[in-house]
Design a protein that fits this description.
It is built from 6 helices and 14 strands. The chain has one domain (about 5-283): Aromatic compound dioxygenase (Protocatechuate 3,4-Dioxygenase, subunit A), CATH 2.60.130.10. Strands 1-5-4-9-10-11 form a 6-stranded mixed beta sheet, with no helix packed on it. Strands 2, 3, 6, 12, 13 and 14 form a 6-stranded mixed beta sheet that branches. It has a two-stranded antiparallel ribbon with strand order 7-8. It has helices at about 10-25, 35-55, 60-75, 80-85, 85-95, 205-215, and strands at about 115, 120, 135-140, 150-155, 175-180, 185-195, 200, 220, 225-230, 235-240, 260, 265, 270-275, 280. The model has no long low-confidence stretch (mean pLDDT about 95). About 25% of the residues lie in helices and about 20% in strands. The structure holds 3-methylcatechol (MBD) and fe (iii) ion (FE). Fe (iii) ion binds near residues 107, 109, 198, 222 and 224. One of its GO terms (molecular function) is catechol 1,2-dioxygenase activity. Its cofactor is Fe(3+). Keywords: Dioxygenase, Iron, Metal-binding, Oxidoreductase.
Length: about 280
């Protein structure tokens, strides 16, 4: 008999191809003019030419690059590669003018349509879900300070071993994922567990680059959110934990000081709790 797979049997190629399939389900249409496409593509290509000249890149290195790019696609790791090394600058440009909450990158593991939960809820989790209990509570408001009734907080995060449901085997479909509908005062309170830091898979193309360059592969522990309310801009963010490993050297460069939580002991004596309010910009 073959052994039941567990989350620790996750492979780069399996999580990569799941992320690729998920991304392909998303409608994408940039409406970019021919002139702008030409400008952007020309400048990216010329930036590569410039690196080759400045560093006297050899044919062996060019072939290694070609083989690596092919492997990124074969492993389905384009979402992972782009979201780890590129997305933070796109987010910086997109959200530079926000007056409300700082956002940060979405990353490759968001799944739309997580179960809807009431304002005071427990995230879907296993009966014996490992990890420190965490009550994450707060309020969603406008930049004018108005509580936003009916706001929703979509939340997703890794478990105590650093794996995401739907991207590692053996986890319930919606484990540690939910869509919390806030109350009439825009408040929410979510019982979950503290996630572990996330390590980029070592057995795929991205891991190969990290090893070849002598980098580390870690993101700090984080909770992803998408916060929305009628008439307001969607906020995509992540929350980190003060003093957590790799908060200061996130490989994805997605930490901002405004997004760091400072949990204290839980009022009920079980684990930790933290209050964090979201402020949404008008549309
Ligand atoms: C993650 O969990 C993540 O949030 C990002 C941005 C990249 C890789 C894994
Ligand atoms: Fe993540």
């Amino acid at each position: 008999m073959t052994r039941q797979l567990t989350e620790q049997d996750a492979t780069a190629a399996a999580s990569g191809s799941a992320a690729t399939r998920r991304f392909q389900e998303k409608a994408t249409a940039a409406n970019t003019s021919e002139e702008r496409v030409s400008t952007l593509a020309t400048e990216v290509i010329e930036a590569v030419h410039d690196v080759i000249r400045r560093h006297q890149v050899t044919y062996a290195e060019y072939d290694a690059l070609k083989a690596w790019l092919i492997q990124v696609g074969q492993d389905g790791e384009w979402p992972l590669f782009l979201d780890v090394w590129i997305e933070h600058v796109v987010e910086e440009v997109a959200n530079a003018d926000r007056k409300g909450n700082k956002g940060t990158i979405e990353g490759p593991y968001y799944v739309p349509g997580a179960p809807r939960l009431p304002a005071r809820a427990t995230l879907p989790m296993r009966d014996d879900e490992p990890g420190t209990p965490l009550l994450f509570q707060g309020q969603v408001r406008s930049v004018a300070g108005q509580p936003l009734a009916g706001a929703t907080v979509e939340i997703w995060h890794a478990d105590d071993l650093g794996y995401y449901s739907q991207y590692a085997p053996g986890l319930p479909e919606w484990n540690l994922r939910g869509t919390v509908v806030c109350d009439a005062e825009g408040r929410f309170g979510i019982d979950t567990i503290r996630p572990a830091p996330y390590e980029i898979p070592k057995d795929g193309a991205c891991g190969k680059l990290i090893a070849a360059a002598g980098w580390h592969a870690w993101r700090p522990a984080h909770i992803h959110v998408k916060v929305s309310a009628p008439g307001h801009q969607l906020l995509t963010a992540q929350l980190y934990f003060e003093g957590g490993e790799h908060v200061e050297d996130d490989i994805a460069q997605a930490v901002k000081p405004e997004l760091v939580l400072r949990p204290g002991p839980a009022a009920d004596g079980r684990g930790e709790q933290v209050t964090y309010d979201f402020v949404l910009d008008p549309e």
